[in-house]
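Researcher: Quick test of sequence recovery. Tokens follow.
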């Protein structure tokens, strides 16, 4: 049975893109990485450039996300 809550490939691209841009990743890089992530290809099928781009962008997102959470926690003290 198919899960009704599963996102389509387009839905996944939109979700990833929105989250990346929301936390400071540049629009064009977010688009590229969202396409890669939504494709759900195994790492073995990604090029070295794609792997590097995903790593860089996801690390940038994580740093910005953690900075935002730290600011938010400090404001709530």
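Model:
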């Amino acid at each position: 049975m198919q899960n009704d809550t599963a996102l389509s490939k387009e839905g996944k691209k939109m979700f990833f893109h929105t989250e990346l841009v929301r936390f400071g990743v540049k629009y064009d890089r977010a688009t590229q990485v969202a396409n890669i992530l939504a494709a759900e290809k195994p790492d073995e099928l990604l090029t070295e450039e794609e792997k590097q781009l995903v790593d860089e962008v996801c690390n940038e997102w994580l740093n910005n996300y953690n900075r935002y959470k730290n600011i938010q926690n400090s404001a709530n003290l």
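The radius of gyration is 15 Å.
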